[in-house]
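On clarity, I found the account of how folds are encoded harder to follow than it need be. Since the whole study asks how a given chain folds, the encoding of that fold should be made plain. The format is easy to grasp once an entry is in front of the reader. For illustration, here is how one protein appears when written out as sequence plus structure tokens.
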Amino acid sequence: MIERFPNCTLTVKHCKNKHKRMKEKYQYASDMLACSGFGWNEEKQCVEVDSRDVLETWMKAHPQKYYTPGKPFPMFQRLGRIFGKDRATGSAAVSGFDVQEQVEEEHDGEDPMFHDCFMSSTPTTDGPTQT
């Protein structure tokens, strides 16, 4: 790329970062559209929300903000062709947001000392050994 465009200052790191951010933005907007209360406005090329309450509920469940409803996102359809098949869609599929919440819920209900009993650095000889 530097040979073709000598004044270009982009690096591989720049390109990878841009790819990652566009994918996050697309997935965030796509998750919004999969929920009740959100819709796509073809004329404005943006996600629209039915009410402020729906948006507030969404923001509480998804505190990281990658996209703002009402802001034009003209590349959404094109990114859908690129990233749309990048996700599981079966009946057991969950989003990254769902998995994060599930992990946090599991850790909230655990006793912190529970795992310590299995983490001993000295071997035990109290029971049968497995080879």
Helices lie at 12-33, 52-61, 76-83, 96-108.
